[in-house]
Amino acid sequence: MDIIVLNPGATEKEFRHILKKLESRGLQANISKGTERTIIGVIGDTSKITEEEENAIRVMPGVEDVMRILKPYKLASREFRAESTIINIRGNRIGGRKIQVIAGPCAVENKTILMNIAEKVKEAGATFIRGGAFKPRTSPYSFQGLGEEGLKYLAAVRKKTGLPVVTELMDPRDMKVISKYADIIQIGARNMQNFRLLLEVGTSGKPILLKRGLSATIKEWLMAAEYVMSKGNQNVILCERGIRTFETATRNTLDLSAVPVLKKLTHLPVVVDPSHGVGKWDLVAPMAKAAVAAGADGLVIEVHTNPAEALSDGEQSLRPDDFMKLMRELKPIAAAVGREI
Ligand code: PEP
Ligand code: MN
Fold first, then answer.
1. Model confidence pLDDT, tens digit, residues 189-245
2. How far apart, in whole angstroms, are the C-alpha atoms of residue 180 and residue 128?
3. What SS3 class is residue 32?
4. Ligand positioned closest to the Cα atom of 300
5. 239 lines ligand 1 (CB under 6 A)
């Protein structure tokens, strides 16, 4: 038993009685109050509940039905929540009709460059600024980010442009400082199965942009989302950013089929990062367009005013003019699939 559906008329007393019953079995409840009904998601090892106990819960006052979710991820599944989740961040609704665009440099390099990029992407129609202050790099000798100083620049950009901030958290020890400045906490591909980190951001109170691991299956990715959600944070955004395959013509293989697959399996919003997906700036625009056509709720795009001098990921960064052109070209594609950008 994973879900308890309450009667529309269930009383507070009946509700508390059910919660007590779960507690007595060492289980926790995730309460989802819909417009029609309240649904209790049962968290913990539900296999401990015998069939007789399940039947006893089914006939408790206030209970309409008791169900099992066959998928290993529960809170993230469409079975648990049929309605698509919309996450509202300073008025920008991720998962709604409007496609949200998170744009900015790979890394925060200095205040002037960041501010310049932010103003340009905002003018082009981006709705979030991105930039890493703590940078996960393949080499320990590459630029590692500015740390808190970089976060301060991001906050200054938000103040000036109104763009909410997306930035990556790599280590639970930095959660406090990141939470102080970020509107969305990004969990990078290399940390998708860092379970300690996932549990930690589950308590952050911030929406989480969960990137797909380099070799993670969709199921493993949803299980990672489940880790975050099991701590009470339901605001998870899934980000497809390409996976490792035998192909070497692109940095990764952008798995756009993940978008419609996820739309079936989960109620969570899905965004696509074509920049890391392809690794080459001239391939970003076609894949961004394909992502929108495939039903993505948003895009993550790296933009830099001087890609040749960028401290990281310059080769996959769009110049502001190319970003502006892409944003214009995305409009009819979004309209064709019933969205706007
Ligand atoms: C990034 O967003 O700059 C980044 C490091 O992405 P990923 O974790 O997908 O490699
Ligand atoms: Mn990058």
1. 999 999 999 999 999 999 999 999 999 999 999 999 999 999 999 999 999 999 999
2. 17
3. strand
4. 1
5. no
Q: How far is CA 73 from CA 32, 86, 114, 220, 263, in A?
A: 16, 19, 38, 9, 14
pTM of the model: 0.94
SS3 content of the chain, % helix, strand, coil (to 5): 40, 20, 40
Cα–Cα distance between 250 and 258 in angstroms, integer? 18
Which amino acid residue places its CA nearest to atom 9 of ligand 1? 189
Q: Is the pLDDT of residue 286 over 90?
A: yes
How close is the Cα of 38 to the center of ligand 2, in Å? Answer: 41
Task: Choose which residue among 137, 186, 251, 299 to substitute to test ligand 1 binding: the one with the highest number of ligand atoms within 8 A of its C-beta.
Answer: 186
Task: Indicate which residue's Cα is closest to atom 6 of ligand 1.
Answer: 188
Instruction: Establish whether domains 3-67 and 87-336 are of one fold.
Output: no
Could you please state the CATH topology (level 3) that the domain comprising 3-67 is classified under: Alpha-Beta Plaits (3.30.70)
Q: Is 137 in the pocket of ligand 1 (CB under 6 A)?
A: no
Write out pLDDT tens, residues 6-62.
Answer: 998 889 999 999 999 899 888 989 888 877 788 899 988 888 788 888 898 999 999
Q: How far is the CA of 18 from the centre of ligand 1 (A)?
A: 43
Query: Would you tell me which CATH number, out of the four given (3.30.450.20, 3.40.640.10, 3.40.50.10860, 3.20.20.70), belongs to the domain 87-336?
Result: 3.20.20.70
Cα-to-centroid distance, 275 and ligand 2 (Å): 8
**Domain residues of the chain, as ranges?**
3-67, 87-336
